[in-house]
Amino acid sequence: MPPVRAPSVQAMNADATWRPLLAVCVxxxxxxxxxxxxxxxxxxxIYTAKGVLNCEADGQIWTIPPKCAIxxxxxxxxxxxxxxxxxxxxxxxxPKLDPRPGESCCAVKVSPLLRELLFRVAAFxxxxxxxxxxxRLTPVVLDEIGAARREHLRLPLxxxxxxxxxxxxIMSDPSHKAxxxxxxxxxxxxxxxxxxxxxxxxxxSLGQWRRQFHVARAMQWMADGRSxxxxxxxxxxxxxxxxxxxxxxxxxxxxxxYFSGREGEGGD
Length: 268
Description:
By secondary structure, the chain is of the alpha+beta class. The protein has helices at residues 9-12, 112-122, 133-147, 161-172, 180-186, 191-202, 206-223, 228-234, 240-251, 255-264; strands at 21-28, 33-38, 43-50, 53-57, 60-64, 68-72, 78-82, 86-93, 106-109, 150-151, 154-156. α2 (112-122) runs antiparallel to α3 (133-147) and α5 (180-186) packs across α6 (191-202).
């Protein structure tokens, strides 16, 4: 899919038409989108109503399924993309009203109340009255964003160029089954050195990182309607049951139950 440019949020919310909240809907039900790296002075909450959204920021990748959102503080460079069916909402917040001050990028669970508030703000007229019902909802929206619970949906990326090449290779070929010893030999270092460098860079072992990546990739493929069997095969698992066991250990439930529950309450 061709990349698209980030909308000029600052232009949309210029001084002459300033409003504390601004929401837009990204509805690309078949082709997905790829938004080049950009930043904006506003804080942003990007919510996934349908499909799965990916966002790279602060040296990490977040995979955001339905019922979740990513919180992006003011002026943090980020890139967002999705493949296939996607509907998401971006809520921009005046940084002077930041409801999560001092917090870095993070994934959060979106409560039913916050979800409905996002839909409501997206329906606001561009120049909603500052003494009307829309403005009175602002503190409620901010309170709900501030109270939203973090979700562990991040995939850390190493800054070290050699390690980044390793993780890029794994992401380009998810079914690759090379062992840590094989990767270490290919990189001309010992297993212990590779393990130490990975722990320093991303805080986990290669096996843990690969399983976390597999969960993220599986979420994307499930959102695109693929079967669990085909996903397990393309991720290199010997059987569907071994993949389901890994997913359950990582997420706490089976892939089918996890995703069907989220899609069922996504945004209809």
